[in-house]
Amino acid sequence: MVETKKAEAEASEDLVVDVEGNSAYLSGVLGSDLVQQLSDIVRKNPNVTDLVLVDVPGSTDQQATMDGARLIRRLGLNTRIAPTGYVLSGGVDLFLGGAERTIGAGAGVGVHAWSDGSRMKAVNNNVAESVHASYVNFYLEMGVPDRFYWFSLDAAPADRVYFLSPEEVYDYQLATQ
Fold first, then answer.
1. Can you give the pLDDT at residue 13?
2. Selection from 88, 95, 62 nearest residue 162 by Cα
3. Rounded-to-integer distance, Cα 170 and Cα 71, Å
């Protein structure tokens, strides 16, 4: 039996969730209501063990994304990037919440320097600035070396994306399997 839950919002980028068996398939942009959406998925579908990220181009609320990843970890859910799927920017951070993390063949993992959409950009801040600490601590909490954060800042500017090679994914310990 397949249960489908589609986001009610008007924009085509909004998060869409389809639940099938023990997997919830996520596509779209992660928003400020992410924690509530994830909570609803688990409450309505207690059999869900895996979140499959199909095409997640990023997030509009970084704190909500980090909180969502922490919730995923607390619940012991696994994350997978669908074969030929992709996660970019905040989508990578959500993926890192998985207790077990797998990346399908041909999947893309894209990173770039962050920006708040206005004046604040990662590259404009000295590496000693406290704004970096929440990111560094998040990655360490997720079992990813802090050097991944610094790499992502240098990999591409905020308006571009750098796709990691399989070797980089392995080196930065993004996948657990």
1. 67
2. 88
3. 24
The predicted-structure confidence for 122-165, as pLDDT tens digits, reads as follows 454 455 566 678 899 999 999 999 999 999 988 888 889 999 99
Mean pLDDT estimate for the chain: 87
| Helix, coil or strand: residue 163 | strand
The tokens for 25 are 């398939």
- For 162, the enclosing helix (H) or strand (E) is strand 162-163
- The pairs formed by 98-105 with CB atoms below 8 angstroms and a separation of 24 or more are 98/51, 98/72, 98/73, 98/176, 99/72, 99/73, 100/176, 100/177, 101/174, 101/175, 101/176, 101/177, 102/78, 102/175, 102/176, 102/177, 103/169, 103/174, 103/175, 104/80
